[in-house]
Design brief:
Distance between the termini: 48 Å
Structural class: mainly alpha
Oligomer: single chain
Number of strands: 3
Radius of gyration: 20 Å
Number of domains: 1
Strand order of the largest sheet: 1-2-3
Number of helices: 4
């Protein structure tokens, strides 16, 4: 007969480390999904919209454009500088994810990291001279893409969560 005993409890240092790893995995998974969705939609846009725009409804159209600048076409032609800034921003946010104490904030940062990586992938791997593929046109707002949306939504979500009192580092 085998004796049953309680599993050893986690030491004080193991629990926070395990939680930090879990939040990093959550943020990483969110970022991977964002990059995959962003790159898939951009590939579709380049393939389909090169033949002409698609009217969806009201003010929403899908129109293929290339943005060599940052948000709202600011700093056009500065693709190498913007790429370097994106790498630094991603590294800083990944460091922040390790220190946050809230899974929802990790999700928000994962959205921002995924969006930044999606646009960085365009600048590095697509042959458009460092430009990012944009295709969602509202005609009262600059044309954008999935990565841009995730950066904005993730930033707003993080701000709201912090304002509501979520625990961050």
């Amino acid at each position: 007969m085998q004796e049953r005993r309680a599993a050893p409890t986690l030491s004080d240092g193991e629990r926070p480390r395990r939680d930090a790893i879990r939040r990093l995995l959550v943020a990483g998974a969110v970022a991977v999904v964002v990059v995959a969705a962003d790159q898939a939609t951009k590939s579709w846009a380049v393939d389909r919209l090169s033949r002409g725009p698609i009217h969806v409804t009201w003010k929403l159209d899908f129109e293929l454009t290339y943005n060599s600048g940052a948000a709202f076409s600011f700093a056009r032609g500065w693709a190498p500088v913007l790429g370097a800034v994106a790498v630094v921003a991603v590294l800083v946010m990944l460091g922040a994810v390790r220190r946050v104490q809230s899974t929802p904030i990790a999700v928000a940062l994962g959205l921002v990291v995924g969006g930044a990586l999606g646009n960085l992938a365009d600048r590095v791997f697509r042959s458009h001279h460092g430009a990012v593929v944009d295709f969602v046109a509202l005609h009262f707002w600059p044309t954008f893409n999935v990565a841009d949306s995730c950066v904005v939504v993730g930033g707003i979500l993080a701000g709201v969560l912090l304002w509501r009192g979520e625990r961050a580092a």
